[in-house]
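Notes to self after the call with IL:
- keep both proteins in one doc
- input above output, always
- annotate only the second one for now

Protein 1:
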Amino acid sequence: MVRLIALDLDGTLLRADGHVGERTAAHLVALHRQGVAVVIATGRSWRTALRIQRELGIAGPAVAHNGAYAFDSRSGAEWYARRVPRQAARTMLAWATAHDIMVRCYLGVGRPVLFNFFTEEHVARFRQPEDAVVGDLSRTLDTDPLELFVVGNREVDSFVDRFGRLGPGYELVTFERNGRRELNICAPGVDKVEGVAAVARRLSIPPSDILAVGDGPNDVRLLRWSGLAVAVGGGHDQAAAVADYVTPPDSPEPVADALEWALSRPWAGAPPAAEGPA
């Protein structure tokens, strides 16, 4: 029986406009109401995971920061965290400030997102209510952060040149979004499977009762570990290679396709048909 569904965001749950499709939302809301744990499992931050939960109208556990963090949005409690040592973070923040590079510092759900300074672009386009500039953050940071985040081609390349890809207590992971490089600085080797496993242990759900849906290289271990794995058609070949099912490559809502396929399996314990969104 499927008791927990772990869902990647980009390229999987979210459409190109950054929102969840109506058919998918109807299925997920129905499953949530029936007691299935609907768990976002994303490489993005806790606040992105929380935003999508609120869009769906659900609350409960979520996994963010590529598996380094699991939290419960009902209680605001942290269920799992693997962090960057604050001394390493302080060193990076001091260097970044000296080289005019804005750094975003995530501490955890319900806490401000700290910055060494704001760029004009961030203020104009991206600033959120919980964003806060802290003077001399490189000296005043008193918590091991979940992640440091940097955006911009020059900024990311400079960081990698200065600190390398791997260091004591940290790893630099780069990727591209909308034509610009972005950088996640996190604990070394973090993976979505560790965050989802922490949630599953908390809920006493074995891997055999978990359905995972994803499309990228950072979903592969989770797909392989889960009892039932669905890869998004047109996604990364490594994800498709370990999946039990691959959705049609042109589907506008691959998660809905995945749920309809998975819950039709004899062992899945399919719930009644989905109702409209709440």
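Protein 2 (the one to annotate):
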Amino acid sequence: MLQHWLMDRFPLLLASTMVGLLTSLSDLCGPATGGRAIARTSWRPCRPLWFFQPYLMGINRQPRLSHVQARAVSDANQETAEDAIDWEDIQASLGGDQDAFARLVARYQQLIAGYMWRFTRHHSLWEELIQDVFVEAYVSLPTYKRRSPWSHWLKCIATRVGYRFWRQRQRREPEVALDESTLAVAVVDHECSATDAAELVHFLLGRLSPRDRLVMTLSYLESHSIQQIAELTGWSSTMVKVQMHRARKRLKTLCSELEIEL
């Protein structure tokens, strides 16, 4: 029993040594063979086993990870590996290898395409925004210092590109058009399909200012936290909180004017 307990907590060599030591101590302190105890007159009584327990517990024991912790470690290792690959391609691109940046584009084109769909529903404009993101990333590539993963750095550029697009668009087209039938269904029946609901949300957000629209999009459509929004926009966390509070009030007022219940 004691041997098994030690084997679980020590390496093989140390376990065999400790088992032999404690066996000798047990022979000295415990009853001898034949059922009679050995007289203890010429030696000090040895320590009981519980005395050694604080020194034995926890030595060379590897903590067990839960499934969630193990998954987090696995994801972190995967992100580290991807970051290393991205860094190699970035260094190669800065050295003049055009194929290296093409690999970066191919690796993150789908991510940026899905993200830029939040900023426009016009297919031609959407493609232009995607191209603008990678062009700006290529021009700004020497400024990347690897303080964060390249995917996060790229998404910050995409946020700036989309926000700039909204500001320029607002000067030419202050409001986003919406099909009257979609609005009628939302107002009268309070029921609509997933596609109509997406168009309705896009319409309502389009009636907000670019700054309000950005924080609402990042918070509710992209599910980012206050800190993440601050990192993507370059604003302070306090500014993000204030802007989000104002955006909620304006959106609530807008829905009230249109008699829409969200």
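Annotation: DSSP finds twelve helices and no strands in the chain. Confidence is low (pLDDT under 50) at residues 10-15, 32-43, 55-60, 184-188.
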